[in-house]
Write a structure and sequence with these properties.
Strand 1 and strand 2 (53-54) form a beta hairpin. This protein has helices spanning 11-41, 55-79; strands at residues 49-50, 53-54. The protein has a domain at 35-80. It is mainly α.
Length: 91
């Protein structure tokens, strides 16, 4: 069971955590864009078909969604932390 560290973080630590998560999210976006460029444009010269569609079309559309889901899963499981950022809870 994970230790609940919501109350033990200072405001500076919370800001640092949010900043770190934002940086990793930005890096994930850059990685996804690079994948899209390579998958879509890099494979356009190949004569490979998947379900009668060119490889670049499949990788540049469905492939990008699959990679984005995988990146999101890794970020949420390994890097992101659930912390109380303050404010009032209306529930």
């Amino acid at each position: 069971m994970k230790k609940n560290n919501r109350a033990s973080l200072s405001d500076a630590q919370k800001f640092s955590l949010v900043k770190r998560e934002a940086i990793y999210t930005g890096l994930a976006l850059v990685g996804l864009i690079i994948f899209w460029l390579i998958a879509g444009f890099g494979t356009s010269s190949l004569d490979v078909k998947i379900f009668h569609l060119p490889l670049w079309a499949v990788l540049g559309s469905v492939g990008v969604w699959i990679v984005a889901i995988l990146i999101s899963a890794v970020l949420s499981k390994k890097l992101f932390k659930d912390v109380d950022l303050g404010g009032e809870d209306n529930g």
